From TrEMBL:
Catalytic function, reaction form: S-ubiquitinyl-[E2 ubiquitin-conjugating enzyme]-L-cysteine + [acceptor protein]-L-lysine = [E2 ubiquitin-conjugating enzyme]-L-cysteine + N(6)-ubiquitinyl-[acceptor protein]-L-lysine
InterPro entries found in the cross-reference section: ARM-like, ARM-type_fold, ARM_PUB, PUB22/23/24-like, RING-Ubox_PUB, Ubox_domain, Znf_RING/FYVE/PHD
Organism: Ilex paraguariensis (yerba mate)
CDD domains according to UniProt: RING-Ubox_PUB
Name of the protein: U-box domain-containing protein
GO biological process: protein ubiquitination
Keyword flag Transferase: yes
Keywords: Transferase, Ubl conjugation pathway
Function of the molecule: Functions as an E3 ubiquitin ligase.
UniProt key word Transferase: yes
Domain called U-box: residue spans: 16-90
Ranges that cross the membrane: none
Length: 418
């Protein structure tokens, strides 16, 4: 097996990492050497972590850092790469040439170009697309862009023409905004403006799925970042907002980002209790159940949390109970995806079985008893176990005789008295 560059131990009895190739902080082979204002060179990740924790001095010289600009040391990096190649026979692998973070001067120039009303449309669009390309490249680039008041510029552009849902300029700035977190004050600039919320809802029905998804992403970001319950309620009460989000979830072609953003937005909307019935009316129940098997882990957890939320209202419970796949899928998910997913699935089943004997029989037929017995003796969360115990008690009259007789095999007769 080859050794990755950066090991503290000798790579082989015949090779040692030269001292000046090691980062003074991590003592590992540098993969992205940068020089600070004192003239000392460090690996980028190490010195960034050093500064991020509040240190303002050079780790080696202890001299104050006059500024925090990191200058790539290309000469040293090429020497390290040459050394790696020369020692390949000893198991050393060549370090890749790192992508450099976006130049702050370039970012400032692009933001200025994009925001200037005197510039031609194509010039402004080009600037926004270049910024989006930079943002897509790395977290570092997104940090650089955020540091230059990009949110303020992008919000201004995104909502500059509320009368047109076909404005490319709005769409490009919206695509960029959806890639960044927003502060509470920035979220308020959207949440407190019904015209802006209405514009985002209108974009949920755009012919381009990308525009629809980006709009849903910003809606979710704003909902998550707005503390005011009144404003969150106003957003979730916007005409056709649930229909627009459900439309993204039911998009017929394979598009993982649509699923991810769609369920995040739906969950955020369903956190507003008084408007959950609108999700049911918009057929969110059918959409979530039909796509449940397509979600990745984190998204599956959020989808199941949404199911549990909607099961807390009568119309939601009735809609889930009437879908043939609801109970079998929820039973199957227990102990299969994650502890959180198990907890939400058990909670949803508890709500469903509490309102219908038919659902109880469906759950038993789907094998819920074995799943619950395994759950109460597992390492799952205490909340999940409590829900499982409550559900087992609820289902005791539905237990087949052979299941009751064998319950001691699971070691939980003391947990669930009958």
């Amino acid at each position: 097996m080859r050794n990755m560059p950066g090991s503290l131990e000798p790579l082989d009895v015949g090779v040692q990492i030269p001292y000046h190739f090691r980062c003074p902080i991590s003592l590992e082979l540098m993969s992205d050497p940068v020089t600070v204002s004192t003239g000392q060179t460090y690996d980028r990740a190490s010195i960034e972590s050093w500064v991020a924790t509040g240190n303002t001095t050079c780790p080696v010289t202890r001299a104050p850092l006059s500024d925090f600009t990191l200058i790539p040391n290309h000469t040293l990096r090429r020497l390290i790469q040459d050394w790696c190649v020369a020692n390949r026979s000893f198991g050393v692998e060549r370090i890749p040439t790192p992508k450099q973070p976006a130049d702050p001067t370039l970012v400032r120039s692009l933001l200025s170009q994009a925001s200037s009303l005197s510039n031609p449309l194509n010039s402004r669009l080009s600037a926004l697309r270049r910024l989006r390309g930079l943002a897509r490249d790395s977290d570092k680039n997104r940090s650089v862009i955020c540091a230059h008041s990009a949110h303020e510029v992008l919000l201004s552009i995104a909502f500059s023409n509320l009368d047109s849902v076909s404005s490319e300029l709005n769409h490009e700035s919206l695509a960029l905004l959806s890639m960044f977190p927003l502060s509470e004050s920035e979220c308020m600039l959207v949440a407190s403006r019904p015209d802006r919320v209405g514009y985002l809802v209108a974009l949920l029905f755009h012919s381009s799925i990308d525009v629809r998804v980006n709009s849903a992403a910003l809606i979710e970001i704003v909902l998550a970042g707005t503390r005011s319950p009144e404003l969150r309620a106003e957003i979730s009460n916007a005409d056709e907002i649930f229909e627009g989000i459900v439309g993204i979830l039911t998009y017929p072609m394979a598009y993982p980002r649509a699923l991810k953003i769609g369920i995040k937005a739906l969950f955020a909307l369903c956190l507003v209790k008084q408007h959950r019935h609108k999700a049911v009316t918009a057929r969110a129940v059918e959409a979530v159940i039909d796509r449940l098997a397509d979600f990745e882990k984190c998204d599956a957890e959020r989808a199941l949390a949404t199911v549990e939320l909607l099961c807390r209202i009568p119309s939601g419970c009735a809609a889930f109970a009437s879908h043939a796949l609801t109970v079998p899928l929820l039973v199957k998910i227990i102990l299969k995806v994650s502890d959180r997913a198990t907890e939400y699935a058990a909670g949803a089943l508890l709500s469903l079985c509490s309102t219908s004997e038919l659902t109880q029989r469906e759950a038993v037929a789907a094998g819920v008893l074995t799943q619950l017995l395994l759950l109460v003796q597992s390492d799952c969360t205490q909340r999940a176990k409590r829900k499982a115990q409550m559900l087992l008690k609820l289902l005791r009259d539905s237990w087949p005789e052979d299941s009751t007789a064998n319950s001691d095999d699971f070691g939980c007769s003391d947990l669930v008295p009958f």
